[in-house]
Amino acid sequence: MFKHILIPTDGSAVAAKAIAAGVTLAKEMGAKVTGFCAEGPPVPLHKGGITIPQELVTELARRSHEYAERSVAEIEKAARAAGIAFEPLVVKSVEPYRAIIDAATQRKCDVIVMSSHGHSGLAGLVLGSVTNKVLTHSTIPVLVLR
What we know:
Layout: E1 4-8, H1 13-29, E2 32-39, E3 46-47, E4 50-51, H2 54-81, E5 86-92, H3 96-106, E6 111-115, H4 121-127, H5 130-137, E7 142-145
Parallel strand pairs: 1-2, 1-6, 2-5, 6-7
Antiparallel strand pairs: 3-4
């Protein structure tokens, strides 16, 4: 049924559930996996009247990219162990939900397998669920794990 699965991650323990389930689903269906992580936008040099040193901005960007790469490498490790074809994808994005949908569309994925931290009520409203936004805006099926 599914031939190409997008598994987004934020590197959290909750995301690990979606990685395990997505890889298992891919193996059972003979699908390939694209592992995805959206890096946050670069830190501005000027924020609230304060100038942030360029060296600090550069270091934060480097660490953010390394974290995203390590997060996607966890998906790759699981996919390779299961003998599944794998593609990594790391992008910078101000809106992670939009980046997830765009990646799934551009890579022609059949389904997005992702986790939810389960914030609801005021916490969900204040924190803004990436998963909820993907569910709301995606035309591609989304499998959510909690």
